[in-house]
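A quick aside before the break. I want you to see a complete sequence-to-structure record at least once, exactly as it would be stored in a machine-readable document. Don't worry about memorizing anything.
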Amino acid sequence: MAIRKKSTKSPPVLSHEFVLQNHADIVSCVAMVFLLGLMFEITAKASIIFVTLQYNVTLPASEEQATEPASLYYYGIKDLATVFFYMLVAIIVHAVIQEYVLDKINRRMHFSKTKHSKFNESGQLSAFYLFACVWGTFILISENYISDPTILWRAYPHNLMTFQMKFFYISQLAYWFHAFPELYFQKTKKEDIPRQLVYIGLYLFHIAGAYLLNLNHLGLVLLVLHYFVEFLFHISRLFYFSDEKYQKGFSLWAVLFVLGRLLTLILSVLTVGFGLARAENQKLDFSTGNFNVLAVRIAVLASICITQAFMMWKFINFQLRRWREHSTFQAPPVRKKLPVTKGGRSSRKGTENGVNGTVTSNGADSPRNRKEKSS
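That is the input. The structure line, written in tokens, reads:
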């Protein structure tokens, strides 16, 4: 039988396999269209909506605080176009990390299919969490969040944002929106898709909620806290794939995960339950972005508490499963006891006369033993 040669033909254009293999190049071409549009006067007004941040306001400089006018931003419907463009950028960066970093490591480590998908997931998320955590920490330090925690609720509504703050939220929304098409590009298993959709939906719900309700200060602090804990988990899982005896990172992550949930609840209750509840301006006003009313505060706290309870429930189940697997692995094999005769000795003679635990015909001696006895 002749050996079939491996086909070197590329898949048909716009076919399923063609899109999967070349999705990064296709998306790059689409993003390039918006960038080229900036070069022409006719299309520049439309392209600039996708590429740059919109809704900026220039505040005059005060003699006491600054010498230059400050440029701040608020949100609007045009932000959806900006989120779409940077979603394309996120898809391109995702493909670059996958091809030039993760795929090379996978070829060296020779992972199984299950470990291969989990390694890719942790590799992508650890890179994103590290970048977002460092970026968010820089914003917290530059805007004096750490030295003055009352900034979380003071002077609400926080409808005006700095360039870094708004770009951070646009990038977060773009990244988590890009996770939807990645389910198709990465050939995610059908049984894993519901879990991924819940995971992505929770991120988008809370980030968009903080952005639209002008709780961007509180949202930034909680995101940095959460991203740091998640980064530790995924980087520990990467080390675990290279050495399955590595458990120190998971132990540290378990402690920080519980502390992170407690800090999230404390900061949320302190900001929404006490800080905003004692504010003088408690009137619903869409024009100024003021949502400081009792119903909104209850809804915000309820969503945060339910999410934290859900995460703790998943965490407890995860830890119980790990402990169960660890105890099963550590348990010594059970040895069968030999039957004891009337004299108190184990009947080893019966086992010696049998084959694989079965006694020979009529329980008699083997032919060799009978020959020895007759002689």
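Two observations worth writing down. DSSP finds eleven helices and four strands in the chain. The first strand starts at residue 56 and ends at 59. We'll return to this after the break.
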